[in-house]
Design goal:
15-stranded mixed β-sheet, 418 residues, alpha+beta, 13 helices
């Protein structure tokens, strides 16, 4: 087992490995642009992303759901099926993949959704709005929840919210009868044309832990959200895609290989086992992309920790000499890259450097505080010409992007505030 003194160095590399990829990325060429040209292109790419996002402030389906909510508030719906549908069916789905390495904890949600099979028999039905009585009239149905209602100023019930295809995975034993959702479809439509569509699918193992989860939400305006999660005894992956007309707005992916069996995940000592952590991190692969700007990198975790153990057998200090060694090792074993995704060219690459800081320490003999100087590794990105992408780089040249972003936020506030 490795020396636990490498935990600090491992923690730094662990943060970097969340943007790890293959060696080919490290070999990409720099964009043939000056620093100012990069700034201009980055702002243009940012403005293009903001333009894609602007339509989110005026989604027809959101206004239709608000109409339904207002109608329901003014009626006397028995059992409040809208609230039940949201709290018991929809909300738990959004939490299915929150805990990657603590997968067994997902079963704690069963306290909220263990009675899934009771929902449709209790509140299932077609709820049709009656304009004269201003009430929803229910016709019982054990396979779906459907609301038929007017959207906007319509004098007819031209809107429909359909919740159906709810299927359940059940695991029974001596102490529990746990239920988890396997599938669910939700569609909001106007005049029979979809406005918002949601599809949820999941599979489970014998102890009701999710082995795969996928959820997609589509808006008629062209926005699509897709999230997938896969877990097996040897692999875990998570992927997020947010697009507008199939063009990227935000995407990310994390995948890794290792021992993710139920026994391993339940064994809390693994969190202190450097060998187990190394196995996970050594096989990690991930990226984050916003619009056309992508952050990825290359990390050699095992080589880095071996170098750390050899250099600091008794642990690292915050002296200038030790931090210089640390930065040298980090730069030799970890590279982060900011690039233009479409063009496949590099904007800047990471470089660790020694940063000075000051703090106050108490002298226990004199009970007086003394200012002391220490050092720590810090990260910056370097352009092709050797200059740094520090805070001063962003202080000027991004005014149009900032204004556009503020205008977009104002549109959201104006359109969606009550």
């Amino acid at each position: 087992m490795r020396n636990h003194s490498s935990l600090f160095f491992c923690a730094i590399l662990a943060g970097l490995v969340l943007t790890a990829c293959d060696k080919k990325t490290e070999e990409l060429a720099y964009a043939n642009l000056t620093v100012e040209q990069n700034k201009e292109k980055m702002q243009d790419d940012g403005l293009a992303t903001i333009t894609k996002l602007e339509g989110m402030s005026n989604l027809s389906g959101v206004f239709a759901l608000r109409d339904l909510d207002n109608l329901a508030l003014n009626s006397t719906l028995a059992g409040d099926p809208i609230e039940i549908a949201i709290s018991k069916i929809i909300a738990p789905l959004t939490n299915m993949d929150k805990n990657v390495l603590g997968l067994t904890n997902l079963r704690s949600m069963q306290a909220d959704i263990q009675n899934l099979s009771d929902i449709l028999p209790q509140i299932g039905g077609v709820y049709t709005y009656n304009r004269t009585t201003e009430e929803f009239i229910r016709v019982a149905n054990t396979t779906k929840i459907e609301f038929v209602f007017p959207i906007g100023s319509s004098t007819t019930n031209n809107g429909k919210l359909l919740i159906d295809n709810l299927t359940i995975s059940t695991v029974s034993n001596a102490t529990t009868n746990a239920e988890m959702p396997k599938s669910l479809d939700i569609e909001l439509s106007k005049n029979s044309l979809p406005m918002i569509s949601l599809e949820y699918r999941a599979a489970y193992n014998s102890v009701n832990e999710p082995t795969s989860v996928s959820m997609s939400i589509s808006f008629v305006e062209g926005y699509d959200f897709n999230e997938t999660f896969v877990h097996s005894n040897t692999e875990v992956s998570m992927e997020l895609k947010y697009t507008f007309n199939d063009e990227n707005i935000l995407s990310s992916k994390f995948s890794t290989k290792g021992n993710f069996s139920t026994e391993a995940l339940n064994n809390e000592s693994n969190l202190e086992d450097i060998e187990w952590i190394n196995q996970v991190l050594d096989n990690a692969n991930a990226y984050v992309q916003l619009g056309n700007l992508k952050v990825t990198g290359v990390v050699d975790i095992n080589k880095g920790i071996d170098a750390y153990d050899a250099a600091f057998p008794n642990g690292v200090t915050n002296t200038a000499a030790d931090v210089d060694k640390m930065c040298t090792m980090l730069n030799a074993n970890a590279t982060l890259i900011v690039l233009y995704a479409k063009e496949g060219t590099v904007i800047a690459k990471s470089k660790f450097y020694k940063q000075e800081y000051t703090s106050w320490e108490l002298n226990e003999n004199t009970w007086e505080y003394k200012e002391v100087t220490g050092y720590e590794p810090s990260l910056q990105f370097i352009f092709k010409d050797g200059s740094a992408m520090d805070q001063s780089f962003f202080n000027q040249g991004f005014e149009d992007l900032q204004t556009s972003f503020e205008d977009m936020l104002q549109s959201f506030q104006t359109n969606y505030s009550e």
